[in-house]
Design brief:
Helix content: 10-25%
CATH topology: Alpha-D-Glucose-1,6-Bisphosphate, Chain A, domain 4
Mean pLDDT: 93
Low-confidence stretches: none
Shape: globular
Radius of gyration: 16 Å
Number of helices: 3
Length: 125
């Protein structure tokens, strides 16, 4: 199943991309919300940047592995998220509309691996 959204932002493309690529800020926000985050690798390494996340959702401990699979500044970022029940590909695209305007487009492709995950994805339709 695929989801998408887009938004125009009043910032230059490079400035907005730099803000969205501030992964340490997103890590801090996740930690403040109760997620255990372990960063592995770096953008420069061959394996890329990865995060192992553990969090509670609906009274159960869940684990997810997030990998930055594509990083093309200042145009796009692609993340691959895997956990035992669901695979997600998250693509974020930045398009310069003018010197001070940027279109921010997000698309997510969800691929359930279990029956429970299929029911969850179906309920999102």
């Amino acid at each position: 199943m695929q989801f998408g959204a887009k938004k125009d932002v009043a910032l230059p493309q490079q400035v907005f991309f730099d803000r969205m690529a501030d992964f340490q800020m997103f890590e801090r926000v996740a930690i403040q919300r109760g997620v255990d985050v372990i960063r592995r690798g770096s953008i420069a390494s061959a394996d890329g940047l990865k995060w192992d996340c553990t969090f509670k959702y609906r009274r159960r401990v869940r684990k997810a592995s997030v990998r930055l699979s594509e990083f093309s500044a200042p145009d796009n970022m692609v993340f691959s998220v895997t956990n035992p029940a669901l695979d997600i590909k998250l693509e974020i695209t930045f398009t310069a509309l003018s010197k001070t305007q940027t279109r921010f487009q997000v698309s997510a492709i969800l691929k359930p691996k279990t029956l429970t995950a299929r029911l969850l994805v179906q309920s999102m339709k």
